[in-house]
Amino acid sequence: MKSSARNGKIDLLKFVFAVIIIIYHFNKATTYPQPIFTRGYIGVEFFFVTSGFLFAQSLSRLSCRKATLIDDSFAFMKRKFISLFPYHFFFLLATLIFCIIHYHWDTERSFVQIIKCIPDLLMLRINGISSLTLLGHEWYLSAMLIVMFILTPIALQYRSFFFRFLCPVLTVFCLGFLYQQKHNLDFVTEWIGLCTTGFLRGTGEIALGCLCYAVYDKKLPERLPKWLLSAIELFLYAVILLHANRMTTIVNDYAILFLTAIAVTISFTSKASFGFLNNRFVYFLGKLSYPIYLSQIFVRQIIAPIDFGLGYAFHVAFYVVCVIVVSLLCILLVDNLLKLTKKTSGEVAKINH
Fold this sequence. Notes:
Helix content is 71%, strand content 0%. By secondary structure, the protein is mostly helical. Helix 1 (8-28) packs parallel to helix 11 (280-303) and helix 7 (159-181) packs across helix 8.
């Protein structure tokens, strides 16, 4: 099934869940009573499942050529890495400069810390070798990239095996193992012998997202009436948001994860689309979600310690606004630098030609 145009509903949901995640992390850096979204970490499940869906969708467009399988797989992941790296580098550098100034690192310590953050620079934190974590929340990106790097050649060469056998096995095994360790998903860095729990979390949930695409590709949700699809989708996201805000204890994180998978599958279905959400502003909100996710630690270190004396609501709202402003500045700066670099490279190529 060919992919449809960009999905405004998914972009809006990316923005919403990114804000929920940064509020959750803000709460952990403060001591306010009764904060909101105390289970906001569950927003990461939306991003993992969505990433798995889009990963499978992108691979479905690629032809399988056995002779160039490794090159094709590497090229696919290279494009993925390059698309993420500029914004990642911007906030890694900003956080490093902040730490040097704020913690008064001298030249020797600054040099040592720069060397230590090389795994962070390469977005390899989740593999367990990181000794300095400047962007701890990037475990999600690290897990996503490593899992996709491993799965890409398998998915390209053995599509049927990948969707019908490997993805179900990875989903059941990884999530089952994590459930036996802890009945919630709020643990990432624990080492379990071969990898971290965050890596298993990413593996199981990206595989689940791939299964969501397989269901979508078979047009199974399309068999339901539009009003019923929309009603189910709205109900599921309501339950997910209530769970994130700790307003329901009926289900656990793992049940919420599978409800998220169903909701995401419906959200990608054209039959359940809302045309008014397919506009440039909503698309931009989707783009903004990535720098929002990246900027949170840098901004939080500055904003969280400030006592405005105006209560939690003002403090968290001010923090979210600051994160959005910094994210906008990041997009403005990075996108213009990328355009300038591309233009300069093009002019140099013409001269050399």
